[in-house]
Amino acid sequence: VEALLKNGQFPEALARMEYLIKLDPQNKNLQKKYSSIKEDIVLRAEVRDTVTQVNNLVQRDQFNEAVTLINGLIEKTGNIEVLVNKKNEVEKAKQEFLKNLNIKANLLVSNNNYSQAITVYEEILSLDPENRDAAARVSELRTKSKSTDKTELYLSKAREYYSKKDYLKAAEMISLILSIDPANIGAKTLQMKLSNESEELFLKYSEAGDSELQAGNTETAIKNWAEALRFKNDRQIREKLVSNSINLGILFYRKEELKKALEIWEFGLKYDPANKELNDNIKKVKLELEKLEKIR
């Protein structure tokens, strides 16, 4: 019997014990040995089943559940070598898995994929709730993620304004993005394109305005300067537009073309809303137009 047990032939050893008990039914030592072998067979089956379950859990990356299962059996049976070794194996696999998750999370962060990185760090915390670094990273990335959502929205608007050649508004959006994320590549690329194109178009329309003014076409000049201001907020062009709007409006006023004068002054007022002369002229001509309407 001992030789069979030593070779792990438990069913054969149990059968041999049953045979010996039949020969000596009153022998308590034989009965005790028989019960011990039977318990050992049951225990080994339980250990085998547990190891199988642990392997399945590890395959599903459920390391904590696997350790809990092993610990439960160790409490019941004591530190059986196979269980202790299996527990160490699971812990090692868990640490390797956590290491790979950290690498994955860091890569996602470097690519600004904050939402996915947060998911990975949360997975790390589910396996290692005491991991302070992962907890800190989740908190930090949630803040960054909100900022990224903002910058993506602003960048989308900037590109929309750029496509419509509304360069001033596009520039405003780019400034907002860079105030949040100074290294934003998308905003910097668009800013460079915007700077090159807006300067070129600004010069084109500002020079066209000057040429039209010299040719005596003040109204066309004003319109060209207004177009130039779409691409660059230039103080001198703005002042030129406003002063010529005042003078042109006065010419129409003197020719009693009151509606045209009002149109020109209101156009100029868009570029200098606080201009006293424009506001006074507009108020005056509106009163005169009201009087004419009453006479009619």
Entry keywords:
296 residues, mainly alpha, 84% helix
Question: Can you put this structure into words, describing what you see?
Answer:
The chain has 296 residues and is mainly α. The chain has helices at 2-6, 10-23, 28-59, 63-77, 81-110, 114-127, 132-163, 167-180, 185-214, 218-229, 235-254, 258-269, 276-295.
Topology:
Layout: H1 2-6, H2 10-23, H3 28-59, H4 63-77, H5 81-110, H6 114-127, H7 132-163, H8 167-180, H9 185-214, H10 218-229, H11 235-254, H12 258-269, H13 276-295
Helix pairs in contact: 2-3, 3-4, 3-5, 4-5, 5-6, 6-7, 7-8, 7-9, 8-9, 9-10, 10-11, 11-12, 12-13
Output the radius of gyration. 43 Å
SS content category:
mainly alpha
For the record, give the distance between the C-alpha atoms at the N and C termini, rounded to a whole number.
130 Å
Number of H/I helices = 13
β-strand percent reads: under 5%
Brief account:
The chain has 13 helices and no strands. It has helices spanning 2-6, 10-23, 28-59, 63-77, 81-110, 114-127, 132-163, 167-180, 185-214, 218-229, 235-254, 258-269, 276-295.
